[in-house]
Write a structure and sequence with these properties.
Elements: E1 4-5, H1 8-30, E2 35-41, H2 45-60, E3 64-70, H3 76-88, E4 94-97, H4 107-113, H5 125-133, H6 141-154, E5 161-165, H7 172-181, E6 185-189, H8 196-200, E7 205-208, E8 226-229, E9 233-237, E10 240-244, H9 249-252, E11 258-259, H10 267-286
Bound molecules: guanine.
Binding site for NADP(+): 166-168, 232
Domain Tetrahydrofolate dehydrogenase/cyclohydrolase NAD(P)-binding: 140-284
Family: Belongs to the tetrahydrofolate dehydrogenase/cyclohydrolase family.
């Protein structure tokens, strides 16, 4: 079998068109555009790039982007004050505090200070609780993007065996909850899971989010499975830098039915689901 390559970039572009249309309708009705506030503390070059691209995408889709860059030595109090100010600002629908924060800051307190109605990152413990309880809330962007790709590929996921490799709050745990809500039978695997190849080999859906370059081998994959690779690791091969996922793409593509590439699979979806969440938050807050 040669896998279909899942084009996350194309899917994200289509989703972006639909979001832009709905953002325009919101703007017409509300008299203001949906607003996304992104907070960056410090000057980590990778984070600066992410934050800039989030702002650019928000504006492209007809949303308002509020970008707050604070110095590396910002105090907890200053950051908490900014979050409180954004919570109170009627023109702000979504708040994202870029992680990781500098080490002297307490990330959890900052996340907990965000109004859950504006938690477009889905990181607030209440957002996680809503998801687990099957209640409407905002869902973390990366797993939401993975789910959209899976449903586009497979239609109904009901009854399928899924394995999520990785148990982070940002990806693994919400991903497992989303798949469970779609009536999958979900195995949550992680770095200490015994007999991982055997467990991966039973799954119709594999979501890899462990952050270890090419750890999941093609021969582990069940023939005809759908593989979603969240990992992005930089490796040097033949003296050149490459971006690779958590799955050994070349060997997995000979067994899977469909697979996301790295780059160009899950990555482009994450920023678009952030825009999706901002739009949802805007409509719910107006509603
Ligand atoms: N840093 C890397 N990914 C993310 C994300 O999804 N949300 C936030 N807030 N920070 C990140």
């Amino acid at each position: 079998m040669t896998a279909q390559i899942i084009d996350g970039k194309a899917f994200a572009a289509g989703l972006g068109d639909r979001i832009a249309e709905k953002a325009a309708t919101f703007t017409e009705k509300a008299g203001r555009a949906p607003g996304l506030a992104v907070v960056l503390v410090g000057s980590d070059p990778a984070s600066e790039i992410y934050v800039r691209s989030k702002g650019r995408m928000a504006r492209k889709l007809g949303m308002e982007s509020f970008e707050h860059t604070l110095p590396e030595d910002t105090t907890q109090e200053t950051l908490m004050d900014l979050v409180a100010q954004l919570n109170a600002d009627e023109t702000v629908d979504g708040i994202l505090v870029q992680l990781p924060l500098p080490r002297h800051l307490d990330s959890l307190s900052v996340i907990e200070a965000i109004d859950p109605a504006k938690d477009v990152d889905g990181l607030h413990p209440l957002s996680a609780g809503y998801l687990t309880s099957g209640l409407p809330g905002l869902v973390s962007c990366t797993p939401l993007g993975c789910l959209m790709l899976l449903k586009d590929q497979l239609g109904s996921l009901s009854g399928l065996d899924a394995i999520v490799v990785g148990r982070s709050i940002l990806v693994g745990k919400p991903m497992a909850q989303l798949l469970l809500a779609e009536n999958c039978t979900v195995t949550m695997a992680h770095s200490r899971t015994a007999d991982l190849p055997e467990k991966v080999g039973k799954a119709d859906i594999v979501v890899a989010a462990v952050g270890q370059a090419e750890m999941i081998k093609g021969e582990w994959i069940k023939e005809g499975a759908t593989v979603i690779d969240v990992g992005t690791s930089r490796v040097i091969r033949d003296g050149e830098k490459h971006l690779v996922g958590d799955v050994d793409f070349a060997s997995a593509a000979t067994r899977a039915r469909a697979i996301t590439p790295v780059p160009g699979g899950v990555g482009p979806m994450t920023i678009m689901t952030l825009m999706h969440n901002t739009l949802i938050a805007a409509y719910r807050r107006k509603g």
